[in-house]
Structures are given as C-alpha cells and as structure tokens.
Amino acid sequence: MEATRRSKKNEGPAQTPQLSAWLWKPWYAKLWWTAIPIWWGGMAASTRIDALEAFYRGGIAGYLNVVFFPGTALMVLGVGYLRERLDRFVGQGEGGPLSDEEEDDLFQMRMRQEQNRFLDGIGKGTDMFDPRSGPLWIGNPLNPLNAGYIDPHTGKHR
C-alpha cells in the first residue's frame, strides 16, 4: 500500500493538453490559418476588381466562405483537443472487452427486453379487457361498468 502511495506522489500532477498544440502545431492547421486571411483579403479586394467579384459571387465561394470562416477552423481543429481532454478526464473502465459470444448474448438479451417492453405497451392499447385500453374498455359489453352489461329489468350483472 505504501509503495503505491509513494509512486503516485512521484508521478506529479497530470499534464493537461495544450490547446495551442491542436490549433496551431499541425501542418494542416498552419495552412488553414494562413489561408483564412488570404481568402478574406481576396474578398475585400473583390469590391474593387471585377474578375474577383465574379468568382466571389459564385456558388463555390459560398462553400469556401464557410470553410475559411475562423469559427469553423476553431471548431474543427478543437475537436482533437476536446477528445484528448475528455479522455484524460474520464479514466479507462476496469472491465475488459467482451468476447464475440458475450457480445452476442448481451445483444440478444437487450433485444428480448426491448421486445417485451414493446409488447407490454401494445397490450395497454389493444386489450379490450384491460382498463388502460381506453375506448375499447369503455365500449366493451363485458365491462362490469358498461350499461349494456347490467340487465335493466333486474339491475344485476348478466
């Protein structure tokens, strides 16, 4: 027990991932961040140059506006950071992976449970002897509360 406590003390604090490592360090991130001001600079220049204006009014330019929007780059490049951050936050479970047979058994059990839940629910609305079926129960002549079930001459159930 003491050995594990000492080893945990020697490990030090866990390193959290750096956001800059995901937003700037990869080559594709540098390329994307560099292309963003070029794209928007070209759009600003398109107000003065007719050839650029024709291109920036095209359909592909609308798509590229979304691609080169800084918020898009931030969201897409930040996915890796969030994934790493959450992986460190939530530790690995203690269980091992399931074998194919165990996985099939678990799947079959869940399918049976889902089917039973469905069939229990369908009985509520289709069984005329179940008060939960609503109009079927109310209009059923075998319902003891139905007026047709009571003999009008004797006042008793038929």
Summarize the structure.
This protein is an all-alpha fold.
Would you mind describing this structure in some detail?
64% of the residues lie in helices and 0% in strands. The chain starts with a helix and ends in a 20-residue tail after the last helix. The chain has 158 residues and is mainly α. The protein contains 8 helices and no strands.
Label the structural class. mainly alpha
Indicate the overall shape. elongated
Order of helices and strands: HHHHHHHH
Mean pLDDT, to the nearest integer, reads: 82
Largest sheet: none
In which range does the helix fraction lie?
55-70%
Question: Spans with pLDDT under 50 lasting ≥5 residues?
Answer: none
> How many β-strands, per DSSP?
0
Proportion of residues in extended strands: under 5%
Topology, pairings included?
Layout: H1 2-11, H2 19-23, H3 27-45, H4 50-56, H5 59-67, H6 70-89, H7 100-126, H8 135-138
Name the features.
single chain, 158 residues, mainly alpha, 8 helices, elongated
